[in-house]
Amino acid sequence: AGYSVGLMLFQASMQGFTAQYLGAGSQWWRSHALVVIIPLVLFCAVQFSSIFLRLPRAYPRLAPLIRMLSVGSLLLVFLTPFLDYSLLIRICTASIFPVCMVAIALGVHRWLNGYKPARYFVLAWSTFLLAVSYYSLAKFGLFERTDLSEYAVQVGALLESVLFAFALADNMNAQRKSFIHAQGKALELQRVANEQLEMRVEE
Questions:
Q1: CA proximity to 103, closest of 125, 128, 133, 134
Q2: Closest CA to 106 of 69, 74, 154, 152
Q3: Could you tell me which of 130, 107, 15, 27 has the C-alpha nearest to residue 59?
Q4: Residue 91: how many CB atoms within 10 A of its CB?
Q5: What angle (nearest 5°) sits at the alpha carbon of residue 166, between those of residues 134 and 8?
Q6: 11, CA 20 to 30 Å: which among 2, 18, 53, 180?
Q7: Tens digits of per-residue pLDDT, 139-185?
Q8: In terms of C-beta density within 10 A (0-12 exposed, 13-18 middle, 19 or more buried), how is residue 203 classed?
Q9: What are phi and psi for residue 64, nearest 5 degrees?
Q10: For residues 31, 34, 39 and 44, what is the CA-based torsion angle, rounded to 10 degrees?
C-alpha cells in the first residue's frame, strides 16, 4: 500500500500536482517536492521488495544491504533542507538505478529458485527501469525528445503498478495453493493417526 501511494505521489509530482495542491503555500515545497518524494518512494520500494520476495527468510545475509538502502533513502529526505536542489535531484536520479538493479537481480534469483510470483516482479521493475533509462537518455540528447520520452517515467510507473497487481495476485494464488497443500497433508496425517488409534483399540 505504501509503495502504491508513493508511486501515485511520484507521478503527481512529475506533473507538478503535489507542489500545486499539497503545500501550495510553501515556496520551498513547490521547488523540492520531487526530491522529497523520490527517496520516500525508494524506501517504500525496498520494503515492498523485501516483503514480496520474502528476502529475510530466503536471504537472511542480505539484511544489512536492505537496511543500508532503506537508511540511505531516508537520509536523502532528511538532507533535503541542507543540500542544493541540483545536487539532490542528481543523487535521487542516480539512486533509482541501483535500487532497480538490485530488485531485478534478487527477483531473477528468486524466480530461478522456483518462486513463481517473482516473474511479474521482475517484469515490473524491468519495465520501470527501461522507462527511466529512456527518459534520462532523451534528456541527455541521446534520443529525440518526444511526447513519449517526456512522459516515459509516468507510463513506466503506471505499467509497473499494473504488473505489480498481477504479481500480488500471483503471490496470493501461490499462498492459497500452499495452504491447501499443507491442509491436505494435515488431513492425511490425521487420517493415518485415526487409523492407527482404531487398530490399537481393536487389539
A1: 125
A2: 69
A3: 107
A4: 16
A5: 55
A6: 53
A7: 677 777 777 777 777 788 778 878 878 877 877 777 777 767 777 77
A8: exposed
A9: -60, -35
A10: 140
- Residues in the chain, how many? 203
Residue with cell 513463481: 116
The residue whose grid cell reads 510553501 is 26
Residue-wise DSSP of 152-190: HHHHHHHHHHHHHHHHHHHHHHHHHHHHHHHHHHHHHHH
Which of 22-58 are b and which e, b meaning 16 or more Cβ less than 10 Å from the residue's Cβ?
eeeeeeeeeebbbbbbbbbbbbbbbbbbbebbebeee
* pLDDT tens for each residue of 8-23: 666 666 666 665 656 5
- pTM, two decimals, is 0.70
Calpha distance 4→161 (Å, rounded): 7
> Cα separations (Å) of 161 from 9, 166, 177?
13, 9, 24
Distance between CA atoms of residues 31 and 113, nearest Å: 45
Instruction: Cell numbers for 202, please give them.
Output: 481393536
